[in-house]
Amino acid sequence: MPGLRYASAWAAGGWFVPLLNLFRPKQVANDIWRASDPQLHSDGWHGRDVSPWLHWWWAFWVAGGVFGNQAAFAQMQADTVSEQFRASSLAMVADILFALGAAFAIAVVSVVTLRQEARAQAMSNAPALAPV
Amino acid sequence: MTASDPYRSLRPPAHVAVALLALCLIAGAVAFVLEMNHYGVLSDLHRGVGLDPGDLSHADALTRSADVVRFGAFLAAATAFSCLVRARIATSRAWACRVCATHRHGRPVAGSSRS
């Protein structure tokens, strides 16, 4: 699919670059979602809407990361019982957010796979174009 | 998918990714329960119930267990997200070429008359 914004390497590398890992994997996922539309030809897909499943997945993932980091930091600094309470509360919130993120990630993977299967099927059924 | 689809192997292994993410979800729930128990022990300590070294080590063990479970969940999620890489490669390569019978993994098939 021509016109994808980021190279394949960003799909992995985007997770490891500080600050960039807050949005680059989501941008790659957005491109995959848009370009996997079984109804579309190669042009005109850039401006398509992205499913709310992706937004929720990413929102829970990032929020879980923020709370998880806060919890780990609070745990390290905790000297009193009330500080440990706070660290424990943050960790519980992070666990819930990550679990919800995982649930939405399951939905995203499943739906993207269905779209890619459907698009591949549509492509293999379409008449072949001139050789490239 | 039919045999005429040579790009099948490039698309994401959804069942593996879903299984790993399901493990991640379960691990998140387990870590939450462990952390909740930790919170309960802290609460008892705060109220002056069971103030002995055994309870303190129990609370410590709970939070360490939760950390181990979280690390497992992180590894599962990281492995599952390699699915994203495969999806990205499939998106760019498989559909850049619509002559599916003559290309495989973005390269011309040996012996093909078309490149």
For the terminal residues of chain A, how far apart are their CA atoms? Answer: 13 Å
Distance between the termini of chain B: 24 Å
Q: Rg of chain B to the nearest angstrom?
A: 25 Å
Shape of chain A: elongated
Q: So what's the overall shape of chain B?
A: rod-shaped
Major sheet attributes of chain A = none
Q: Tell me the structural class of chain A.
A: mainly alpha
Descriptive notes:
The complex is a heterodimer of chains A (132) and B (115). Chain A is an all-alpha fold and 132 residues long. Chain A contains four helices and no strands. In chain A, helix 3 (52-77) runs antiparallel to helix 4. In chain A, 35% of the residues are buried. Chain B is mainly alpha-helical and 115 residues long. Chain B has a two-stranded antiparallel sheet. In chain B, helix 1 (14-46) packs antiparallel against helix 2 (53-80). The two termini of chain B are 24 Å apart. The chains are: A mainly alpha (132), B mainly alpha (115). The interface between A and B is large, with 51 and 56 residues.
Give a quick set of tags describing it.
heterodimer, A: mainly alpha, 0% strand, elongated, B: 115 residues, mainly alpha, two-stranded antiparallel sheet, 64% helix
Would you summarize the structure shown here?
The complex is a heterodimer of chains A (132) and B (115). With 132 residues, chain A is mainly alpha-helical.
Give the secondary structure arrangement, pairings included.
The complex is a heterodimer of chains A (132) and B (115).
Chain A: H1 8-13, H2 24-35, H3 52-77, H4 81-125
Chain B: H1 14-46, H2 53-80, H3 82-94, E1 103-104, E2 107-108
Antiparallel strand pairs in B: 1-2
